[in-house]
Design goal:
The complex is a heterodimer of chains A (165) and B (432). Chain A is an alpha+beta fold. Chain A folds into 2 domains: 3-63, Orthogonal Bundle (Arc Repressor Mutant, subunit A); 75-156, 3-Layer(aba) Sandwich (Glutaredoxin). Helix content of chain A is 42%, strand content 10%. Chain A has helices spanning 3-10, 24-35, 40-50, 54-61, 83-87, 90-101, 144-156, and strands at 75-80, 107-108, 114-119, 131-133. A 4-stranded mixed beta sheet of chain A has the order 2-3-1-4, with helices on one face. In chain A, a hairpin with a 5-residue loop joins strand 2 and strand 3. In chain A, helix 1 crosses helix 3 (40-50) and helix 2 (24-35) packs antiparallel against helix 3. The radius of gyration of chain A is 17 Å and the shape is elongated. Chain B is an alpha/beta fold. Helices cover 42% and strands 12% of the residues of chain B. Chain B has helices at 20-25, 30-36, 40-50, 62-67, 92-99, 101-115, 129-144, 175-182, 211-223, 225-229, 263-270, 304-309, 328-342, 348-365, 372-385, 393-407, 409-418, and strands at residues 77-83, 117-124, 160-165, 206-210, 239-246, 252-257, 280-284, 293-294, 318-323. Chain B is globular, with a radius of gyration of 22 Å. Classes of the chains: A alpha+beta (165), B alpha/beta (432). Chains A and B meet through helix 2, helix 5 and helix 6 of A and strand 3, strand 5, strand 9 and helix 13 of B.
Chain lengths: 165, 432
């Protein structure tokens, strides 16, 4: 991603904000969609395109759970473990997925395909236990077998051009 | 009690009002038409007369909040819709956005006319990307039809809406943290005053309301504030959305007239009740940040005052139900973990205190508790956290745990000595 490309992406929305600082989050999300996470050169591009320092951009990025300052897998499997999901089996679902992926709890698979994370309420308690692949539709209620199928399907799919995060 | 589809109007139209044409056929934009026939001040007065209270959690009268915005400051005025729906157990706004987005857009247009705003924002949580795309499409369609854009409020009177995506932070549902985030900063709450009405987005007068609050305006303005005020009771008029989840057979969203339905009816008649042989043990009726109540409070009417009367809050309407298979200490531990994770770190009592709560409850659950000493330690923490921070997150962490300890003290003491084995969770096909 070049700074020019990022500026081109931001150009149509610049007028919507009285302060260009508001462009930092949209810019971070955009470059993350391209790179999958926020490596230093992505932070630098956001800094240059928005006119703020890289240190400031990084200070913003580190606040938000869904902005990744460390490399993550091709897909992030975000399992909600907050109360409503816990009552309906989220811990068991999480453990099943971890076993299936060969992970000891949260982490990224050796092939870089999946990052498994426990996340806080994703606003789909009616579908508990639920999970989200990246920022996709909240999926649930899920039996362990459903999650296994989902992971198999993701493995079989051709990788999309952009990351959905 | 029957449901009344005032905000969930889509439920009377095949569950789907996602095209502008369908929304208009269903009576959409009649509220705006009535509004534009009034002066902005008269529109504000109509909000006030309806008695509508903020539906995000605090329940502050919407018309009063809107009337706090100073006029003729020479600065722009902003309307911001809080679609950061992150309170555990709450998923009511998601349904409005997914199935009835134009009612929110119309409501924002109405509010913006009344306070003189030309550019409004919907701050939507990053996890609601699928829902944000529904809003993007609806806004594009409204623009195409001239409902948004240079002449949205009449010839030469512009109004438009920008969808702004968060990136994963519960605290951004707190209105000043939301504004910080929208301004491109870390989402940490501001010291109040000044309140957002006076110095909000970019230091300008700003009205912030929840999705449900704004989506309530079209029917209020179409059918009249007196019609709305006549529903429910004097202090809690109108309808309210409740999300019911946890150990119920039919989790989902339900719209009820305030004061006319009991918690028992919500759980048993609307949300399908519990598994055979199970009884209600604990309910967090207004999201996870409110005091928990027990089975002896099930006959409380669902309105602001009645819920206060049994020691809790209506909050966001995110009603989490736990049956007698659940462990209250384990549930409290899980909530403490939530608040520890979501504390923004700005205020020490919250940053440190939520961690202490989570650690103590965690060791109790895992059989490593220190007996009565841990109970006393927990009790000594509450007052050192609650009321000592800039925003209500810390209070929201303390209230469900303190109330649980009050209500289920014996169980806390037992778990502090013995731990708590993980119960069999409720699944789609109940075990045993």
């Amino acid at each position: 991603m070049t700074v020019a490309e990022l500026e081109e992406h931001l150009a149509p929305i610049r007028h919507e904000y009285a302060d260009p600082r508001s462009l930092i989050l949209p810019a971070l999300r955009y470059v993350q969609g391209e790179a999958g996470w926020l490596p230093p050169h992505a932070m630098a591009a956001v800094a240059e395109a928005t006119g703020f320092s890289q240190a400031y951009v990084e200070s913003v990025a580190t606040f938000y759970d869904r902005l990744y300052i460390d490399e993550v897998g091709r897909y992030c499997i975000n399992v909600c473990v907050t109360l409503s999901c816990m009552l309906r089996g989220s811990d068991e679902l999480f453990e099943h997925i971890a076993d299936y992926l060969g992970l000891d709890g949260e982490g990224t698979t050796a092939d870089g395909m999946f990052t498994l994370a426990r996340v806080q309420c994703i606003g789909a308690c009616d579908r508990a236990p639920c999970l989200q692949v990246d920022s996709g539709v909240q999926l649930g209620p899920l039996e362990p077998a459903d999650a296994t199928c989902l992971i198999d399907d993701l493995r079989a799919e051709p990788a999309p051009a952009r990351y959905d995060r | 009690m029957p449901e009344l589809n005032c905000v969930y109007r889509h439920r009377e139209f095949g569950d789907h009002l996602t095209s502008l044409a369908d929304y208009e056929r269903a009576g959409g934009y009649l509220g705006l038409k009535e509004t534009l026939a009034l002066s902005p001040d008269d529109a504000l007065y109509a909000f006030h007369r309806s008695g509508l209270r903020g539906r995000g959690g605090a329940g502050f009268p919407m018309g009063r909040k809107a009337s706090f915005l100073p006029k003729d400051t020479g600065k722009p005025t902003y309307v911001v819709c809080n679609a950061d729906e992150s309170e555990p157990g709450t998923f009511k706004d998601r349904e409005i956005i997914e199935h009835n987005p134009f009612q929110l857009i119309e409501g924002m247009t109405i509010a913006s006319y009344a306070v003189g705003c030309e550019r409004a924002y919907i701050y939507i949580r990053g996890e609601y990307e699928a829902q944000a795309q529904v809003l993007d499409a609806a806004i594009a369609e409204a623009r195409e039809a001239g409902r948004l854009g240079p002449d949205a409020l009449g010839p030469g009177r512009p109004f438009d809406i920008t969808v702004y995506r968060g990136a994963g932070a519960y605290i951004c549902g707190e209105e000043t943290a939301l504004l910080e985030s929208l301004e491109g900063k870390r989402g940490q709450p501001r010291l109040k005053p000044p309140f957002p009405a006076v110095a909000g987005l970019y230091g300008c007068p700003t009205l912030i309301n929840n999705v449900e609050t704004l989506a309530s305006l079209p029917p209020i303005m179409h059918r009249g504030p007196d019609w709305y005020a006549a529903m429910g009771n004097e202090k809690s008029p109108g309808t309210k959305l409740f999300s019911v989840s946890g150990h119920v057979l039919n989790p989902g969203n339900f719209e009820v007239v305030l004061g006319e339905t009991t918690l028992r009816e919500l759980i048993y008649d609307m949300a399908g009740g519990l598994r055979p042989g199970r009884e209600v043990k604990a309910v967090w009726p207004g999201g996870s940040s409110v005091p928990v109540i027990g089975a002896d409070s099930l006959d409380v009417a669902l309105d602001y005052e009645a819920l206060n009367g049994v020691g809790t809050f209506l909050g966001s309407g995110g009603c989490i139900v736990m049956d007698d298979s659940g462990c209250i200490v384990r549930a409290s531990w899980r909530l403490a973990q939530f608040y520890r994770h979501e504390s923004c770190g700005k205020c020490t009592p919250c940053r440190e205190g939520t961690g202490w709560l989570a650690n103590i409850l965690g060791r109790m659950v895992h059989g490593e508790g220190r007996g009565e000493e841990d109970i006393r330690l927990l009790e000594s923490l509450f007052g050192r956290i609650e009321g000592r921070t800039l925003c209500p997150l810390a209070d929201g962490a303390v209230m469900p745990i303190q109330s649980a300890l009050d209500l289920f003290r014996d169980e806390f003491i037992r778990v502090a000595h013995e731990g708590s084995p993980r119960p069999v969770p409720m699944t789609e096909a109940p075990v045993g």
